[in-house]
Amino acid sequence: MILIFTTGGTIEGLDYTDDGGITSSNVGIEDFLNKANIDFEYTIESVFKKDSRAITNDDRELLVRKIKETNATKILITHGTFTIEDTAKYIGKLNLNKTIVLVGSFILGSSADTDAPFNLGYAISSVQLLKPDVYIAMNGQIFDWNNVSKNLETNKFERNGK
Ligand SMILES: NC(=O)C[C@H](N)C(=O)O
């Protein structure tokens, strides 16, 4: 069984507009899974729905509590890309002995050319195969929680020192 926690971000159609307001186009992660006719057991829970710049450590603590409470050992977290590495580090440091994969998208989940379904598929595959630890699945790659940063110029995640 895969447990999916959703937290908002562009992958769920959530973004700030240039004038500072927040836009929401209400994309359901479940919709992507249904469209792909997936055939594995999963549970999905919305923990909060925020642009990731608005996520606080209290929010991260709530996520951690839910991760600890569940019997599930394979957990996918959908998350905005701006602070996905902060959340990965926050959880990774705790050594929870579960396979936890965080994933987001760069292009609005509601847009026709979104990278959301590709990223989700890659992350769902990864969460089933990786050994217990915390990872970010983006740009068709897996990054360890303690060796990742986002390159704002290229919109790609990189290993540190690369
Ligand atoms: N690509 C993204 O997810 C950016 C987004 N607005 C966020 O929540 O971080």
UniProtKB/TrEMBL annotation:
GO function term, MF aspect, one: asparaginase activity
Domain L-asparaginase N-terminal: 2-151
Gene3D superfamilies: L-asparaginase, N-terminal domain (3.40.50.1170)
Domain of life: Bacteria
InterPro entries tied to this protein: Asp/glu_Ase-like_sf, Asparaginase/glutaminase-like, L-asparaginase_N, L-asparaginase_N_sf
Residue positions of the active site: 10
One Pfam family linked to the record: Asparaginase
Protein name: L-asparaginase
Organism: Maribacter spongiicola
